[in-house]
Design a protein that fits this description.
With 119 residues, the protein is α/β, with parallel strands linked by helices. The protein has 3 helices and 5 strands. Helix 2 (81-94) crosses helix 3 (109-118).
Length: 119
């Protein structure tokens, strides 16, 4: 399957015992967004079109959750909500964002709720 033709950069961030793969879209502007895929066959690849559209006036990051896509598996098998929250915070911190809009699909909704409740 060919990669959708949406300009973006890729990178990796270390979070605990994993490396998180991300796709970065857009440029600084309005409040940046962090897009998290759900649990099934999804990873950041599935969000390229959506992230590209959202990035018209802001930076958007779509990343692969730990153990999915191009992110690494956790050697300690930590797939807790807290670990996923830490991953999202690690990505936002690496981008030097002090404020972010988070969007989670399916299983990532619980991560978004935890982020909102705790921060």
């Amino acid at each position: 399957m060919a990669l959708p033709n949406v300009p973006h950069q890729t990178g990796r961030v270390t979070s605990g015992d994993v490396t998180i793969f991300y796709r970065r879209f857009g440029s600084p502007g309005r409040t940046p967004m962090l897009v998290m895929h759900g649990a099934n066959y999804f990873d950041s690849y599935d969000w390229i079109g959506v992230a590209g559209a959202l990035a018209a006036d802001r930076e958007v990051i779509a990343f692969d959750r730990r153990g999915w896509g191009e992110s690494s598996w956790s050697p300690s098998k930590d797939y807790s909500v807290d670990a996923h929250v830490d991953d999202a915070l690690a990505v936002a911190s690496a981008m030097r964002w002090d404020k972010v809009i988070v969007m989670g699909h399916s299983a990532s909704a619980r991560v978004v709720v935890s982020l909102a409740a705790n921060f």
